[in-house]
Structures are given as C-alpha cells and as structure tokens.
Design a protein that fits this description.
Layout: H1 3-14, E1 28-32, H2 37-50, E2 60-64, H3 72-82, E3 86-88
Parallel strand pairs: 1-2, 1-3
C-alpha cells in the first residue's frame, strides 16, 4: 500500500456526519411497580422532580401498581395499550428475590 492510499484512507474514515443535538421528546411515561396505590401516589411526584429535564409538565403519566396486573401477559397488554415513550420500573416485580444479594434470573 502506498502512502497516498493510507493518507486517503485516513481522511475517508474521518469523514463522518457531525453530531447535532436533538432534544428527546417524551409524551407518555409509564410507571410499573408492585407497590400499593398510596405508595405509588407518593412516588410519582418524586419521579416528576427527578425527570424534570424530560417532563416539563406536558407529559401524560400513568402508574400500574400491585392491583393493576396479576401476571406478565396482563402487564404486557396494558403496556401495549398505553404505548409509552418511557417506562420506569425495577427488577424483581412481585418477587422476594430483592432481599438476597443474588438471584436465579427471576
């Protein structure tokens, strides 16, 4: 390979589109938890404050608590029906595995 080919290759590999910032638009936020309705009600304002960069007050929030789903299919059906832009949840929904330092992939 000649030096000219190497030189050309370096320039071609550096010729990439420049990053342009585009703000993220989130219109629907879904909170999935296994807490009771009262606990969920206390958590939502904290999450709104934490996500202030994304939620400027126009987002539509929905929370699914312990009484809203009994199994994975029921949960997935509700997620599909709501079509959220952002889902907030945690591991080990409806499980006691969070009490232990390791789990079996539950």
């Amino acid at each position: 390979m000649t030096n000219l080919n190497t030189f050309e290759s370096v320039f071609k590999s550096a010729d990439k589109p420049v990053f342009e910032y585009q703000p993220v638009t989130v219109d629907r936020i879904l909170l999935v938890t296994d807490l009771t309705a009262g606990e969920v009600g206390a958590m939502v304002p904290q999450l709104r404050e934490f996500l202030a960069a994304v939620d400027d007050g126009h987002c539509d929030w929905k929370a699914l608590g312990a009484a809203d789903f009994d199994n994975v299919k029921a949960l997935l059906d509700q997620v599909e029906a709501y079509r959220p832009d952002l889902i907030i949840s945690w591991r080990h929904l409806r499980s006691d595995a969070w009490k232990w330092p390791f789990s079996l992939g539950e």
